[in-house]
Amino acid sequence: MSSITIQKAGIKDLEIIQNLGIQTFSETFAEDNTEEAMKKYLEESFNTAKLTAELNTQDSLFYIAWEEDNPIGYLKVNSGKGQTELQDETSLEIERIYVKKSHHGKKVGQILYDQAVETAQHLRKSYLWLGVWEKNLRALHFYRKNGFVEFDKHIFRLGDEEQTDLMMKKILD
Asked: In Å, how far from its chain's centre is CA 110?
């Protein structure tokens, strides 16, 4: 595997993020959800208007992981009012770390996570937080390995189904 680089993304990268989001979300969750629920979620979450708004949100930052000229994953973090829930000025939310299945186990998620930590430190945040589906054992293991602890739960809607996300946080030094 060649070296991985991380680049901050902007509106010019909308199509790349859109394609990565659809591919990685499908690869990760399609086998555990109905085709109808997946189709609805992907259309609502990764349509051009919604991603344009997200990319133009001042309190949200996107980073793309590249292997040469191939985008292989991305990170979305939110601060302040850009956060999906807590909206604590001292925290940074990791909303998405999405990596192509072909690159699982190759440290891409760790590199994107390290970018989130660096961003939080640069923004002088006290802690990171996120929500992760209780059945996504791979992600839960990853976050626990990186020092996250569960502090609450919330409901995530996928189609008509309600799923439980574990809310996790990590205090930064």
From this structure: 12
* CA gap 167, 152 in Å, rounded: 5
Specify the pTM: 0.92
- Catalytic positions are 143
pLDDT, one tens digit per residue, over 123-172 is 999 999 999 999 999 999 999 999 999 999 988 888 778 889 999 999 99
Which of 88, 17, 78, 6 is closest to 50 using CA atoms? Answer: 17
Structure tokens of 104?
Answer: 């699982």
Which residue segments constitute the domains of the chain, with CATH numbers given?
4-129 (3.40.630.30)
